[in-house]
Structure formats: C-alpha cells, structure tokens
Amino acid sequence: MPPLSHPTAEQVRALDLFLTGESLKINAFAGTGKTTTLEYLANNSQARGIYLAFNRSIADNAAGRFPANVRCQTTHALAYRSTPSIYKNNKSKMSHDLNPNAVAVILNLEDLVVSSHFSLGARSRGALIRQTLKHFQHSDSLDVSINHVPRWGKLAALSKTELEMLIADATRLARTLWERMLDPSDRAPLGHDGYFKRWSLNDPEIPGTFILMDEAQDTNPAMLAALRNQDAQVVYVGDRYQQIYEWRGAVNAMERVTTKHECSLTQSFRFGNAIADAASILLRSLGERQRLTGTPNIPSKLGCGQPNAILCRTNAAVIDYVIQAFAAEITPHVLGGTTEALRLLDGVARLKVGQPTDVPEFFGFQNWQEVVQFSESEEGQHLRTFVRLVDRHGENRLRTYLTQVEQAEDVASLVISTAHKAKGREWDNVCVVDDFTVVTKDDEGQEIGFDEEELRLLYVALTRGRQSVQIPTELAKKFGIQQEYQPLRLDQLSSHRAPFSPRSKHRASPQPKKRLTAPHSKSNTSKSFSRAEPVAKESALRRFLKKLLG
Question: Which DSSP category does 520 fall into?
Fold first, then answer.
C-alpha cells in the first residue's frame, strides 16, 4: 500500500469529504486500500472516533495502526460494553450458544409429524428453530417472522401446505425461545448474536464524533439499523461487489446506505493491469461503469498452472482437490480448517444408518438414499458433486484425507479454500476451479444471463492473486477474458518452495510434513491433473489406503 505521506488523488478526495463532518460512503474495489484509507482519515482528525470491524484480528491489527483518538473494536464488543450488568454477571448467559439439542431440551420438543411422508425429530426441529432465530438476530426486524425460517434441504420439495405448517411451527417456537433468552433469570443463553440483537433493538448511541465502518458491504441489517440512528458522522467503506454473505444474513450496505457524500477507490495496489482488466470485465457485467486499475510496476498475468492457492466454489470441490493434492504427494492446507467438510461427512454417516441429521444440506432427509435421489433433481443439483465423491471414495476414506491435511498454512506449499473463506486474503499465484455456476438458464436449459451473487463470488476469487490468476476456460471465453491457460500441474509443485502468506512478504518455511501420500511412481511426475482426472492411478491409491486403514 502507498505510505500515508503519499496518498493518491482518490484518497485525498476521500479526506476532503471526510473533513466536511458529514457522512460519507467510499466505494472501494479489491486491493485498493480500504483500511489504509480509513487510517489516513483518522490521522487527519483530532476528534474522538471509533473504528469498527467484524473480525477481532482485524480490529486488533487496526488498534496498532490508528491514532490514539480512535478506538478500534468489533461490532460485538461494542454491543457487549452496553449490555446491562444483570446479563454480563452471568457468563454462561452471555457466552454460551444454543445447539439443536439444547433448543430441544429447553423447549421440551417432541417429534413433529408433518404428513404421512415427512416428519422431523426433536433435534431437527431444534436446528430449524435455532437458525430461524439467527436470521432474526441478524435482521432489522422487531420480531421473529415467517421470513426468518430457512428453506433447508428437503423442505424445498414439500407441498405448500406442508411447508406453511412447518414454518408456522418454527416461527411460534422461535418467538418463545427469544422471549426466554431475553429473560435474565431464564436458563436459555442469550449468546453473542443475542446480546448484539438486544443492543440493536434498544436505539444505542455509539460514542464518538465519527464512526469508521470497515468492510461495510458485509454489515448485517441489525448493525445498519443502529448506524442509521446515529448523530455522529458515519464513514462506510467497502466493495459492493464483494458482498458474498447473503446466505448468513448480510445485506449489501454499500447499495442500501445513502449518505451526503460518496467517492471511490479504483486503483489496486495488490496486482498489475492484467488482473485488474479481467476484474473490470466482471464488474462491467455487474453494471459497474468505473474500471479497476492495477499498479503498472507490479507484473501480473492471466494463466497459472502451479498455484499457491486453489479456490473453489463448494466444499465438495475442496475435498476433490485435497484428494488430488495427496495423489501428487503434496500435503495441502485447507483455509479455515476442515470442520465444515467433516460436518458433511458426519451427516452422511448418520443418514447411512437411518439417523436424521441437523446438517443444513441434508435437513429433513431420513436416509442417504433420499439425498442421492434428491441430488439428481433440479432442486438438489448443488449436492450432486458431493454425492458422487461419497459414492466414489466413501465417507471414511474422505475423512482420512481431511484429517491429514497440513494444519499450519505457513508450512504448506499449497492452500485449498472456498472463495468465501478466501475473501480478504491474497496469494502470488491463484487457480480458480470450475465449480462456479455463474450462468443462469431457463426451464429449457437456454442461457438467459448471469447469477449476480455467483458473479460477485467469482470476482472475489479472481482478485485474490497478486502475480497470476487462472479461471476456468469456459468462463474466460464467456466473458471475453484472454488468458494463457496452463494445465494444473500439482505434481510439479515443489514442496521446498516457500509459500506466500496472505498480506505478507515472501518468507522461507520448512518443508511441509507428508503424513499421507500416494505411492510414488514415474507416472505421477508427468501426469496433468484436472477435474476430469481427479486422482492419478486410482488402483494404486486404493491399495495404499487399504494398507493405511488396515
């Protein structure tokens, strides 16, 4: 990033608008220095302010950079400070979270028979009620409504009457649970999202002359409601095209918020013009008129066969590439851990023995065969790749792979991640794989446009690379993006090559551990891996895993 003593013209413009004392919205593209710009604004004010972030590590990092007149904290920490002591004195009330079993016990839930072919166990009802409440807590609604009930798994296949019955039941019980959570003497825990929602509903006054809201595009409606009612100057900075968390209650604040002033940051300091030009093509497809420009002295290109990071749309693809990495004798790191993928496999194991699971993707299914059948339908096509992975390898073998990945990112020569978890991160060389479903089709299978949420996610993935990025050939052609496509050669990645940690300089690292590898063979050193050829020498892998698993 440019030093604060040498701001760009765009940053100077932002400062001029900030010094008016009126609220401001800064539309900032990928890599354009959002937090650096907020720091620049803060250093040019003597007034008392507050910097807000969602992530504690980001807030802690900002605390070491911002001047003493600005307090840096998370939005939840802000809410916690204002919570009455009658709640805070009860640590379990404040910090414990509700799991589906706890909800079932607290509400004395029993199995619910919706129809002759569909029923929910007490734990599954607890999971549905819990998520309904979470949706409410992230919203700006004053009460729980039917709109907060998720349409998980098999619910998409229910009749209108069945669905209405289930939604009414979940809404009623979620309201009851929320009332008990608000009661300081009740055993139902309020939890972090609970005390945040309570704070938002009570017209809070945020201390300070100005408020700096970082990554504002991910602000949920509950936080937006609190910010709208402030007398203080509010500065929202974010990238409206990096809003990718709609599924967990976030709204695009950069679209919703109206301020007296507005400006933009369009020069990226992360990559050069080649990547910036490709990103601008995606932005234009999203309706953006301004171009993202790169830094000319940073060399960058489109095309990458030996990446530092592989970015996927789904957890199923993450698992697939973990298998491919082990086949190439590489122990990869999975960004954010493997908890979500292992959760899916736990759900498979339960369903295969006829036990329902509260895993959202499998919600309402009574056994694994129902999931397999559902995955072949239009409503269930998002599960198709995962189902085929389980069918090909089995959940136990997949679990073995996932439990053997490298835990430390800084010693792994390859990082595998979903695009969601890669947001805010960057690597020198990035390969985006082909499980993104950007194109929308009509009932007859004809292309009719682009899915904006998927296109924003592709934009996020493409802008994670500093030196090179490769996107699927089909998508490159679709958008007219020129790239020097290179086959993904995991077998040629050097285990001695030092990785590039996100937002850090190149540094040497020890050789990664290889706790699980496929048997070495000459064919492995020359084979090109792709999704069409997921594992080299399947028979060799099968023999090896049989030996490994006894």
Answer: P
Distance CA 213, CA 206 (A): 12
Element (H, E) at 447: strand 447-450
Q: Whole-prediction pTM value?
A: 0.82
Question: How many angstroms separate the CA atoms of 423 and 34, rounded?
Answer: 14
C-alpha dist (Å) from residue 4 to 10, 237, 256: 13, 17, 30
| pLDDT tens digits, one per residue of 173-223 | 999 999 999 999 999 999 999 999 999 999 999 999 999 999 998 889 999
Distance between CA 141 and CA 24 in Å, rounded? 25
**Alpha-carbon separation of residue 422 from 38, 162, 417, 419, 502 (angstroms):** 22, 38, 6, 5, 10
Looking at residue 307, the DSSP 8-state letter turns out to be: -
What is the rounded end-to-end Cα distance, in angstroms, of the chain? 53
E strands, 186-317, are 210-213, 233-238, 261-265, 301-302, 309-312
CA 548 centroid distance within chain: 34
Burial class of residue 394, CB neighbours in 10 A (0-12, 13-18, 19+): middle
Please identify which residue in the block is written with the tokens 């919703």.
256
pLDDT tens column, 281-320: 999 999 999 999 999 999 999 998 789 999 999 999 999 9
Nearest CA to 469 among 304, 274, 271, 242? 304
d(CA 374, CA 364): 12
